[in-house]
Design a protein that fits this description.
The chain has 752 residues and is mainly beta. Helices cover 4% and strands 55% of the residues.
Length: 752
């Protein structure tokens, strides 16, 4: 508790100084003051500065300037947030303040909830889609245990798309960049029946040739090929009732991720490290190989030797309806949604030219959700409140198959075994078909009461329950041999909630202190298991979060500064880890010991002169395991994966007016992440050192803002770094997923 208490004293001291500075500084002209940002972090429209929650709001203009086309591009755009992926179009690993989950199985739930227009996107298969025609993205840091509730102990990403309007609008954009990358977006909307019914239709197309050369075939890999569409209807038959209905579709036919291969088995003592694996200095020397003797030795992280060029095929569909009825200074809100996701991903998992490990991920997901809220709508009342209920019906089907060591089969061929299958030597096709059904229920409420003109108290409580039924089978050669069968049911329930105080020091400065409890439901492991213990249910994890913060605007609202300090008591943490069983590296998911996480964050926006806007954000994080033993290994005191000590982002936007009324717009941005570990052991080879990444954009904008044309550079200095590592020690290899190289391009945008 020392960290947040110290931070709280510091914030009070700072706020007093800022308040004093504010009272003597004259107000800025309206065209110099920073614009107000409206967020819906608490399920109602509020000024960002009035919400006692750590929130980063990213506008559509910011997203366009940074080239954000999916959730991965949000990495480091908010303090303490890190996002990466081992897959091309699914399973993002989202961490906020060190809280998240690396499990990529389709029945897993991240510790960070993703919401699009109020709809929970539970499937990791669907969380990389839908980033087009956006109005705003809000990143909520810390447990959201009351109003969001479901599996949001790390935070939430709240995505809002552009709504239909009663005026005709049209938007279009076209980009062309390195690797023949093309991205086209278009949207059109307007009234169907004046003042009653409006529509908006939007679509996106993304393609490129790929940025990794395959030396075996001469083709380029890691290519993108996807499209998406969304139709929205807004029905407003009266002033006090509206329905927003949407349908959306997403199709991905791009390449599966082809990783870089790093060989680990040394051939001589000179290339052997203290752990018995290859010395880092000998990785590309030819003195180390994988289990089949292959090594990539050219030190080119944009080239591979791949015998299989896989595809990551994903199909998504969603439909939702949000109805809002206002009456007697109350609002009744209903959010109904149905989604399905299909995936068939064929990948050359080993990243090499031999048939050592090839996996076909085949998954289907269906989800129905219903949320109903009754909330106050009286700005003159000292009490504002929300009461609600939530229901989810989810079905996950998986039939993944893993072809292991196929090139070794000739060594095991006999008259009695013509296929050469040898499960004892891990030479076989392993599969784990299962069906998991979940019914989730929750009731919740939150109230904010103005104790005085300056002091507001908050109390919130949520009860949640997930009834899960897992029917699981582990098999060999598509059912020729059955290793394990399991049929289990269990209900996971818990209370979560919020307590808080917010005090207004001045009209432009307030401080807050909150306690939040978040939880993530327990469940069943959805990967390859060979023993009954591996499919036993794991328990809920809980997180008690203590936070203090300050939100302020000063110098005539030319400067906005928001800071926070937090302390987490992380209990029964669900941890994704590796184990060696029967000579094969397998993945396990279990509850680890408690962890302690604490740190501080700051975000600043400044507008020193009318044409220039500066923004910056920083996060300082301490995140380590408590006592934690797994599979005979001691991880006690190790750094949590995906949790850099320092993240920093900075951006500048300059709009230079021309005599014609047009303007030149310049944007530059950079972000920094300190060293990050990808695995619980904190092995140096399974980490990425600190890295800076920068971008820039320069454009001409017409006098009315309707046309903008320009050029951009993303990853301006062509930094090459690892975004994720999968280590398979038993096969003698690491699989490194690399970042996208520098992208230089041109764009044209139109708005009517």
């Amino acid at each position: 508790m020392k960290a947040p208490m110290f931070m709280g004293c510091a914030l009070l001291a700072l706020s007093s100084g800022f308040a004093a500075a504010q009272t003597v500084s004259p107000p800025a002209p309206d065209n110099t003051a920073i614009a107000e940002i409206v967020v819906t972090a608490q399920k109602r429209a509020e000024n960002l500065q009035d919400v006692p929650v750590s929130v980063t709001a990213l506008t559509s203009e910011t997203l366009a300037a940074r080239g954000v086309t999916n959730v991965l591009a949000l990495n480091n755009m908010a303090p303490g947030m890190r996002i990466s992926a081992n897959d091309a179009a699914a399973n993002p690993k989202i961490y906020i303040r060190g809280v998240g989950l690396s499990d990529f199985n389709p029945n897993a739930s991240s510790g960070v909830g993703v919401y699009v227009d109020g709809v929970y996107i539970g499937s990791p298969l669907a969380q990389m889609a839908g980033f087009f025609d956006l109005a705003q993205v809000e990143v909520l840091r810390g447990p959201q245990g009351t109003l969001y509730g479901r599996n949001t102990n790390g935070g939430a990403i709240n995505i809002t798309t552009k709504r239909p309007t009663q005026t005709f609008t049209a938007d279009a954009s076209l980009e062309y960049a390195t690797f023949n990358a093309v991205r086209a977006e278009a949207a059109v909307g307007g009234p169907i029946i004046a003042d009653k019914l409006a529509f908006r239709a939007a679509a996106q197309l993304t393609r490129d040739d790929g940025y990794t050369h395959n030396r075996v075939t001469g083709n380029d890999l890691n290519a993108a090929d996807n499209w998406a569409g969304r139709l929205s209807l807004l029905y407003t038959p009266s002033d006090d009732f509206e329905v927003l209905a949407q349908v959306n579709r997403y199709v991905n036919r791009g390449d599966a991720i082809t990783p870089q291969h790093r060989a680990l088995f040394p051939s001589d003592a000179a290339s052997t490290g203290p752990d018995g694996l290859c010395l880092a200095s000998a990785y590309a020397s030819g003195a180390c190989g994988d289990l089949m003797g292959y090594a990539d030795t050219d030190k080119n992280d944009r080239a591979v030797d791949a015998n299989l060029e896989g595809k990551d095929k994903i199909d998504l569909f969603g439909a939702s309806a949000q109805a809002t009825w206002s009456f007697n200074k109350l609002q009744l809100v209903s959010v109904t949604a149905w989604q399905w996701a299909h995936r068939n991903d064929v990948e050359n998992t080993d990243g090499g030219p031999l048939q050592m490990l090839e996996i076909n991920y085949r998954s289907r997901h269906q989800q129905f959700t219903q949320e109903l809220r009754l909330q106050s709508d009286n700005p003159d009342s000292p009490l504002s409140w929300v009461l609600g209920g939530y229901f989810m019906d989810e079905r996950v089907e998986d039939n993944t198959r893993q072809d292991t060591l196929r090139d070794f089969r000739p060594f095991f061929v006999t008259p009695d075994n013509p296929t050469g299958v040898s499960p004892a030597d891990s030479v076989a096709v392993f599969g784990w078909p299962y069906v998991q059904k979940t019914k989730g229920y929750a009731v919740f409420g939150q109230a904010d009461y103005k104790i005085s003109d300056r002091l507001t108290g908050t109390v919130g409580l949520r009860w949640s329950a997930d009834k899960k039924h897992m029917n699981y089978r582990s098999q060999i050669e598509d059912g020729a041999f059955i290793l394990l069968e399991s049929d289990q049911k269990k209900t996971f329930s818990a209370f979560s909630g919020r307590l808080g105080l917010r005090y207004e020091l001045t009209p432009d400065t307030n401080v807050y202190a909150t306690y939040n409890r978040g939880y993530k439901a327990g469940g069943f492991f959805g990967g390859l298991a060979t023993s009954p213990e591996e499919v036993e249910p794991y328990d809920n994890e809980t997180l008690d979060a203590y936070e203090v913060g300050m939100k302020s605007e000063f110098f005539g609202r030319r400067v906005r500064l928001n800071v926070s300090g937090f302390y987490y008591d992380y209990k029964n943490q669900q941890v994704f880890a590796q184990a060696l069983r029967n000579g094969l590296t397998v993945l396990v998911l279990d509850n680890a010991a408690n962890s302690k996480v604490y740190g501080g964050e700051a975000e600043i926006t400044a507008r020193p002169i009318q044409p220039l806007t500066l923004t910056a954000g920083i996060s300082l994080l301490h995140a380590k395991f408590g006592e934690y033993f797994s599979e005979g290994q001691d991880f006690t005191g190790n750094w949590l994966p995906q949790s850099p000590k320092v993240t920093f982002n900075v951006a500048a936007n300059y709009v230079a007016p021309l005599a014609s009324g047009a303007s030149i717009v310049a944007n530059v941005d950079a972000n920094y992440g300190s060293k990050v570990y990808f695995e619980n052991s904190n092995a140096p080879r399974l980490s990425q050192d600190a890295v800076w990444v920068a971008g820039a954009q320069l454009s001409w904008r017409s006098p009315n803002g309707g046309i903008e044309a320009g050029a951009f550079a993303r990853n301006l200095f062509d930094k090459s770094y690892v975004v994720s590592i999968s280590n398979i020690d038993s096969l003698g290899e690491d699989l490194l997923t690399m970042n996208r190289p520098r992208s230089l391009g041109l764009f044209l945008r139109y708005h009517y």
